[in-house]
Design a protein that fits this description.
about 5% strand; 6 strands; two-stranded antiparallel sheet; about 325 residues; alpha+beta; 4-stranded mixed sheet
Length: about 325
């Protein structure tokens, strides 16, 4: 509905009084605004300085996947390895087929990132891989309205990461790098064999795995949820600011480019705490298990809380301290 505005007949003094009143109200509103909202408005500027850090560890010397692997990842990997024939089938049957299909699909329908093709994304990849002390895989950008990223590495070929365009539109550059580092974590921890099988299940391609029982399928998805927690730690090792990683998780859960400035990491962590309280009863625990059993990823609030907890842990701090000689000063933008 349109509203016609009458011509202004106000005097100069009336206009001056109105301007003064509006400026006064605006200043009062800013003073009374929650600090979180003001912080949200400037979050992009803060992250252009890597979360206000003065320096970062440029590389974790001799870093091994077990240095940051989540205990649940270790436990569920051991359980999968004792299942007879499962690893052999993944490597010799499913792996080569899935790899060839996805490789040809990405070469034919996506854009391969390189020094002369989307160089800003290539720099994010190279920096993340260098920090984790690993060879960078290929990176493809695929047109897709669903914000997502995934990794494939089986069969001796060069592994590759695929990032959807919707994810690039949703996240800030350092958040995108955290997602890339998450995918690199799968490669650093040699998740390739199990990751492909679990992703087949997660995408409901059940006919590819006709021999697997329901218990094995459930075990694979349980392993994948645990592996995601490990890779969130890899993202933190590269970002070295838990707010960057948690913000990416928050935006993937319910972000929008139009509203991202109003999102608040601390509020999301309080939401995670509320979820823990609500599921602390026996009935809540049952509902939580039923809710997550068929998921390929842990719930976003739980992932955020895991990142926050590990960022304050002695294990994470020891990794930073051990590599303090490899710190690199960050350029500070004015």
């Amino acid at each position: 509905m349109q509203v016609a505005l009458a011509p202004s007949v106000w005097s100069r003094q009336q206009r001056s009084d109105l301007d003064h009143s509006l400026h006064t109200k605006a200043r009062t509103a800013l003073k009374q605004a929650p600090k979180a909202q003001l912080a949200g408005a400037s979050i992009s500027r803060q992250w252009s300085k890597a979360g206000a850090l003065n320096s970062r560890v440029a590389k974790f010397q001799n870093l091994d996947g077990d240095d940051f692997r989540h205990p649940l990842d270790q436990q569920n990997t051991r359980l999968l390895k004792v299942l007879p024939g499962l690893e052999t089938m993944a490597k010799n049957v499913l792996g080569p087929v899935a790899e060839q299909v996805l490789l040809l699909e990405n070469i034919g329908t996506s854009v391969l990132v390189g020094p002369e093709q989307l160089p800003s994304l290539h720099r994010l990849l190279i920096t993340a891989a260098s920090t984790l002390q690993m060879a960078p895989p290929d990176l493809y950008i695929k047109q897709n309205p669903v914000p997502n990223a995934y990794t494939l590495a089986i069969g001796g070929r060069k592994p590759f990461i695929v990032v959807h365009t919707a994810l690039l539109e949703l996240l800030e550059p350092l958040e995108v790098q955290a997602v890339i580092a998450h995918e690199l974590g799968h490669l650093k921890c040699n998740h390739g064999v199990w990751l492909t099988m679990a992703n087949v299940l997660a995408t409901n391609t059940q006919s590819v795995l006709p021999l697997l029982s329901g218990a094995v399928e459930e075990g694979l998805l349980r392993w994948l949820r645990a592996a995601e927690l490990t890779c969130d730690r890899a993202a933190l090792l590269v970002a070295q600011d838990h707010r960057v990683v948690i913000s990416a998780l928050m935006k993937l859960a319910g972000g929008s480019p139009k509203l991202n400035a109003e999102l608040n990491v601390e509020a999301f962590l309080r939401q995670a705490h509320s979820y823990n309280e609500a599921t602390s009863t026996p009935f809540g625990w049952y509902i939580k298990n039923a809710q997550t059993r068929a998921l390929s990823h842990p719930l976003p609030v739980l992932r955020a809380q895991e990142v926050d907890t590990w960022a304050a842990s002695s294990q994470y701090r020891a990794l930073l301290a051990k590599n303090h000689l490899h710190r690199q000063r960050l350029p500070q933008k004015q």
